[in-house]
Amino acid sequence: MKRLPDRRDSIAFDGAEIRKAFATKEASVVHCTLPPKATSAATRLVAIHEIWYFMGGQGKIWLREEAEAGPGTCLELPAGVHFQYCSTGEDPLTWVCVCERTAGPPGTPVAGMLPTISAASNIVNPDLNYPGQTLRY
Questions:
Q1: Radius of gyration over alpha carbons of the chain, in Å?
Q2: 52 is a domain residue
Q3: What's this model's pTM, rounded to 2 decimal places?
Q4: Cβ–Cβ < 8 Å for 4, 21
Q5: How many CA atoms lie within 13 A of 39 on its CB side?
Q6: Which of 12, 45, 48, 128 is an S-S bond match for 116, by CB 3.0 to 4.6 Å?
Q7: pLDDT (tens digit, 9 = 90+) per residue, 7-24?
Q8: Residue 114 maps to a domain
């Protein structure tokens, strides 16, 4: 048995605070936090499949279309998908993330930040190459 650490272990590509629960060779579980009113960086999963279960706060996620996120919401993020999310409430958005490696040899990046995404077309727009630009809700 293991307790979550009181302080974050790291910051994810998208800007969420990560506290590691446990990990095996094939999968891991982490507790994630996005501060109130914060927006994540636009991200694409590369060699990992994730399942998120939201436990606290309120937010929105762009994943093929915009959706509300809050306690009790569960979603799947398959490898290759583009997504972004934000915390819309006064409390941090918190969730548990189950991560499963899907492909690639050890050392393959599991996710990456996207330069610019068009929410309407769900593709990276090469004409708008502003590193770090994010979608705003």
A1: 15
A2: yes
A3: 0.76
A4: yes
A5: 11
A6: 128
A7: 999 998 899 999 999 888
A8: yes
Beta strands, E only, the chain: 10-11, 17-23, 27-34, 43-45, 48-56, 59-63, 65-69, 74-77, 82-87, 93-101, 111-113, 117-118, 123-124
CA 122 vs. chain centroid, Å, equals 16
* Interacting residues of 23 by C-beta distance below 8 A, sequence separation 6+: 29
- Domains contained in the chain, number: 1
Q: According to DSSP H, which parts of 1-137 are helical?
A: none
Q: What residue has token string 């094939």?
A: 26
Q: Would 83 be classed as within a structural domain?
A: yes
CATH of the domain at 36: 2.60.120.10
Q: What's the CA gap between 5 and 9, in Å, rounded? A: 8
99 lies in which domain range? 10-118
